[in-house]
Design brief:
Blueprint (H helix, E strand, L loop, with lengths): L3 H7 L8 H21 L4 H11 L4 H25 L9 H18 L5 H19 L17 H17 L4 H12 L4 H25 L5 H24 L3 H22 L1
Length: 268
């Protein structure tokens, strides 16, 4: 249930709103986050802010509750990408395995440790992400290099670490995923987004069970926000599979998202 006490402590703007108004506002923000997550990443910066600042959940509870919408949004987007021929699961199964193992390890840490200190460090990581995206932009728009096979000692630690990060906090996971898959594994940005959604859906199902076991999920709030996130993910995935210039749109959206995140974290 919503805690009016928590809400009034966070912002006077929300304390006079009804629960229905709060839920509608949260769902709208979740829809936008679902769209951003599907084509770029860092949409959890929006949903986690909604859950903590607007709805008054403590950080660990918000972290767990956020995973419901992440799962439904990623599942919906993955189905659309699969039907559109952008998702080849069999070819990437080795990548999937190591990310899921890392995510489980990250979730074990997350249910026992607050992520507030990590969030303070996150702003430095955002600057790194932005630089990685802006340097040599042509690398982000190239087709998948089907002849490239990365050595296991390169992709195993990278993908395990990526999964650990996603299992721990999720926020920014999509951006890191694209940096690794596009720049290092040489997968096209749209195919990378398709793979990203499927991988996140798989490990998030496990992570949800772990958070639920530790009573760190508000199911009512999580399911309401999941409606908006799922719709945002589904609509954006349809756009990405039907529009020829979707790769450019994904790249420019990624830049906009990172600039906005860096600005917020450093100056506000």
């Amino acid at each position: 249930m919503l805690s009016r006490k928590h809400i009034s402590q966070h912002s006077y703007l929300w304390k006079d709103m009804t629960d229905i108004q709060l839920y509608l506002l949260a769902s709208l923000g979740a829809l936008f986050a679902g769209a951003i997550n599907t084509l770029a990443g860092n949409g959890s910066a929006i949903t986690l802010t909604i859950l903590t600042e607007l709805l008054g959940l403590p950080p660990n509870m918000a972290n767990g509750t956020n995973r419901i919408g992440i799962f439904t949004q990623s599942s919906a987007a993955s189905w659309v990408f699969y039907k559109g021929g952008q998702l080849d699961i069999a070819k990437r199964k080795n990548y999937l395995f190591w990310i899921v193992i890392g995510a489980i390890a990250g979730a074990v840490v997350a249910v026992n440790v607050s992520n507030e200190q990590f969030r303070a460090f996150f702003r430095f990581m955002l600057v790194f992400m932005l630089v990685a995206v802006l340097v040599k932009p042509k690398r982000w728009l190239r087709p998948t290099d089907h002849d490239f096979t990365p050595p296991w000692y390169l992709y195993v630690p990278l993908l395990f670490g990526l999964g650990f990060y996603g299992g721990f906090i999720q926020m920014g996971m999509g951006v890191f995923f694209l940096i690794i898959t596009v720049l290092i594994l040489r997968i096209n940005i749209i195919e990378s987004n398709a793979l990203k959604g499927f991988v996140i859906a798989v490990y998030t199902a496990v992570v949800i069970a772990m958070f639920a076991y530790n009573n760190l999920i508000d199911w009512k709030i999580g399911c309401i926000m999941a409606i908006g996130q799922t719709l945002g993910g589904w609509l954006t995935a349809r756009f990405a599979t039907k529009v020829a210039w979707a790769d450019k749109a994904a790249y420019y959206l990624l830049i906009i998202v990172l600039i906005a995140a860096v600005t917020k974290m450093w100056f506000f």
